[in-house]
Write a structure and sequence with these properties.
Blueprint (H helix, E strand, L loop, with lengths): L1 E6 L13 H18 L4 H6 L2 E12 L8 E12 L5 E8 L5 E13 L4 E2 L4 H7 L4 E8 L1 H4 L11
Length: 158
């Protein structure tokens, strides 16, 4: 399990004086990028492979408020990836200093070709790195159905 620690700042709060929704997303994003960098997939490596990180969805479940001046831990576990490395499933948990679980999130992550602005292609070199990532207890190889399990499609106004 990968863990980052954060102290809740005044600017992290919303109008209800607890951690704001967008801050959860920021903390998870920071944790993921730190994890990738610490596991040999830095932004430089991504750029050298013409790839950028993208999030396809983030589902957050809130269990308990996070208040100012608390110190929290945000964990990351890799719960799946597709055989070609194009899709990765991350799980994040938020914990207080006593280890109580405050929130949980499931993230579907992928790669964008930074020139074509479409899904990228994961090289053998990057796939080898992805395959070394530590896995959660519920890890699985993701199928096409897993990456589309919510079945949402765009609905334009016109």
């Amino acid at each position: 399990m990968y863990i980052k620690e954060f102290e809740i700042r005044w600017s992290d709060l919303d109008a209800n004086l607890h951690l704001g929704n967008s801050t959860y997303i920021d903390y998870m994003s920071h944790t993921r990028m730190s994890f990738l960098t610490d596991n040999n997939l830095s932004l430089d490596v991504m750029r050298n492979n013409n790839l950028g990180p993208i999030t396809l969805y983030e589902h957050i479940h809130y269990f308990k408020e996070i208040k100012p001046r608390e110190t929290i831990k945000v964990s990351l576990e890799v719960s799946g990836y597709s055989a070609d490395g194009l899709f990765l499933m991350f799980e994040h948990n938020f914990y207080n200093s006593e280890g109580k679980n405050l929130a949980y999130a499931e993230i579907l992550f992928s790669w964008i070709d930074i020139k074509k602005r479409k899904f990228g292609i994961v090289s053998k070199e990057l796939l080898d790195i992805i395959e070394t990532f530590p896995r959660s207890d519920n890890f699985k190889i993701l199928t096409k159905e897993d990456t589309r399990k919510y079945g949402r499609k765009p609905k334009d106004l016109v």
